[in-house]
Specification:
By secondary structure, the protein is α+β, with helices and mostly antiparallel strands. The chain has two domains: 114 residues, no CATH class; 139 residues, no CATH class. It is 33% helix and 21% strand. It contains eight helices and eleven strands. Strands 1, 2, 3, 4, 5, 6 and 7 form a seven-stranded antiparallel beta sheet that branches.
């Protein structure tokens, strides 16, 4: 791999990196990232760089990525000196030879370390992986639909937890959106091999995702006032919507729809609602 290829490869991996926090774990947001300060120019402290290179990077040689024409494999023992020469001019990075670890240094002498993640275009569902169910009801356009969302969101986590089981097949995630804006159109069930998650700081994609939306009868729903009436109506509607999974069983490769729907009924019963 020549310098240009290496630098291009580094840029492709940078956005797939998870950065480390104070505890040595993956930071869950920008504020949790641990930054080190090695200084620049006369204040540059190679000892700090060398300590990280020694403890974090296990190989004797690492990739030093500076620019398209100045990126190469260098000895770990000389990397700190090379960094000190260039750091006040521009940012740079270190990667290990297996492309699993990274150190990013800004031009003002602070740096962070992280893990380079691999997110393939698709994957087979891990054996025994429980289904992650997510019900969403957070978009509203009136006081009444906001009330409905507030009520059902009190129970959604319990419902999701009760359905967090392995039902076989290929589906890892099931996302069901409850539409509470009347002018919004529903969308039918779709099964996607990989879905980007822009809101996640560590998991950039979800795999094998079933996703569809459910629309209530807004006229009928407006006639419901008590929490019990609203929950009974919504949970029954959500349950009935899962019949679509029976129609998609071939695509879901053996997903046990019967067991899932029975567990759905049981979960609602535990919440005090018999459908």
């Amino acid at each position: 791999m020549d310098s240009k290829q290496l630098f291009r490869f580094y840029n492709s991996k940078f956005d797939l990196s998870n950065w480390i926090d104070e505890k040595g774990q993956l930071a869950q947001n920008e504020d949790e990232i641990k930054w080190f300060n090695c200084g620049i120019n006369e204040d540059f402290n190679p000892k700090i760089i060398n300590e990280i290179l020694k403890s974090f990077f296990l190989e004797d040689e690492v990739y030093l990525c500076i620019s398209a024409n100045k990126s190469s494999l260098v000895k770990k023992s000389t990397a700190a000196d090379e960094i000190g020469k260039i750091l006040h001019k521009k940012e740079l990075a270190i990667m290990d030879q297996s492309f699993t670890k990274i150190m990013f240094c800004s031009s003002d002498g602070i740096f962070k370390i992280g893990m380079i993640r691999n997110f393939p275009e698709n994957r087979v569902k891990p054996s025994g992986e429980p289904l992650a169910v997510s019900f969403t009801a957070n978009m509203t356009d009136s006081d009444y639909t906001s009330k409905v969302a507030t009520i059902i969101n009190k129970y959604i986590c319990n419902l999701e937890n009760e359905l967090h089981k392995d039902y076989g097949g290929s589906m890892e995630h099931l996302w069901i959106d409850f539409q509470l804006i009347e002018e919004h159109k529903t969308y039918p069930f779709r099964f996607q091999k990989r879905v980007e998650i822009p809101t996640s700081f560590t998991e950039f994609y979800s795999y094998n995702v079933g996703h569809y939306s459910v629309r209530p009868d807004f006229v009928k729903m407006q006639m419901l006032s008590s929490e019990e009436e609203i929950c009974s109506y919504v949970f029954e509607l959500l349950y009935k919507s899962t019949q679509i999974l029976e129609e998609k069983q071939k695509k879901l490769e053996g997903f046990n729809v019967t067991a899932f729907r029975l567990d759905f009924l049981s979960a609602c019963k535990k919440l005090g609602y018999i459908i």
